[in-house]
Amino acid sequence: MALTLGRKAGEKVFIIDEHGREIEIEVMKAEGNIKNALRLRITAPQEFKVVRGEVYDGSSS
Asked: What superkingdom heads the lineage (predicted)?
């Protein structure tokens, strides 16, 4: 499943799993010097790993 949407600073998106656990993604602000770059705040339960794409290797460990 994929979702593409636009968000402004201060707006949020929630991801909720089958157990009711929530991951909150909030747009903090756009970066001034980088075109179309955003700063995000991701809040998730400790049992979730939050990993940047450039360091993610696809393994489940």
From this structure: Bacteria
Q: Distance between CA atoms of 27 and 61, rounded to whole angstroms? A: 28
- Quote the mean pLDDT of the chain: 87
Instruction: Enumerate the domain spans of the chain.
Output: 1-61
| CA-based radius of gyration for the chain | 13
Q: pTM higher than 0.85, yes or no?
A: no
Strand arrangement, sheet containing 12-16:
12-16, 22-30, 38-43
Per-position DSSP letters for 6-57, written without gaps between them: ---TT-EEEEE-TT--EEEEEEEEE-SSSTT-EEEEEE--TTS----TTT--
Task: Give residue 53's Cα distance to chain centre.
Answer: 11
